[in-house]
Amino acid sequence: MNLSETWFIEGDIDFELQKYKLLAYLQEVQTYFNETKLYPKLSDLIFHYNNLTSFRKNKKLLQDHFPKRIDQVNAEKLELVYQQMLADNELMQELENIILFAIENIRPVIEDGTGIYEFVERQLRIEPVGILPLYKNEGYVLLRYGNMQEIRVYSYTITLYEHKDARYRGIKMDLINSMKGGVIYTSEMIKREIIRNNPQMPNPAVYSIDTEYSFPLDETLLPIAKRLLVQYIGRERAA
């Protein structure tokens, strides 16, 4: 199940009702975490936590103080609902109880998820393959994991996004090949194969990421590998 962005003020503002809705959602999230599956549950959970704390802090619900996932229509709807609630002290207290309960129960689940994230990240080893070019925002990743005698080859592109308060990097990775690895087919051999198939890139940036653990690929390994690669290239650029 999923919670909407405004779940805590939808329907009846009733503590018991919203409590059980939240607990059912957190139970499902915990089941995913127990299977070492982090995404998209962890990012959604963090969103809901920030949304609740933002709602509680910003009494007027100004749009520019709201999490960016809420669009203008929803922000205006929330502000209208909030203004209507201000006239009802009992209702406002019930809403406050719901929000406090949610914050207190979401926080430890986020801590579980981030603990799993940090564990997985520590198990990943990243290193460049051969000599790297100066331009590293495009290239290839060779991914090995668990006991699989397979190397998954991804192309990657890193994009810089500008925001009024910050600059941040996004990354896109696409699977282009999957081949048997091991002693016979090394990372260096795969890089030579990539160059042979793409003569317009005589020396592409190629990184190897591997782990001995069989983490879930789409829900955990790939999202963490992407972030690890962006951080690694960022440190190289700053050095």
Total DSSP helices? 6
What is the arithmetic mean of pLDDT? Answer: 85
Binned strand content:
15-25%
Strands of the widest sheet, in order across it, are 1-5-2-3-4
Count of individual beta strands: 5
The biggest beta sheet, please? 5 strands, mixed
Q: Give the N-terminus to C-terminus distance in angstroms.
A: 44 Å
Coarse structural class: alpha+beta
Succession of helices and strands:
HHHHEEEEHEH
Helix content: 40-55%
**Nearest-angstrom radius of gyration?**
23 Å
Number of domains: 2
Any low-confidence stretches, pLDDT <50, length ≥5? Answer: 60-69
How would you describe the shape?
elongated
Outline of the structure:
By secondary structure, this protein is an alpha+beta fold. It has 2 domains: 7-122, no CATH class; 125-238, no CATH class.
What does it look like?
The chain has six helices and five strands, in the order ααααββββαβα. The chain is α+β, with helices and mostly antiparallel strands and 239 residues long. A hairpin with a 4-residue loop joins β3 (151-162) and β4. The protein has helices at residues 15-34, 41-57, 72-85, 89-123, 187-197, 217-238; strands at 125-128, 138-145, 151-162, 167-179, 205-211. It has two domains: 7-122, no CATH class; 125-238, no CATH class. α1 (15-34) packs parallel to α4 (89-123) and α2 runs antiparallel to α4. The protein has a five-stranded mixed β-sheet with strand order 1-5-2-3-4. The longest helix is centred in the middle third of the chain and has 35 residues, at 89-123. Residues 60-69 have low confidence and may be disordered.
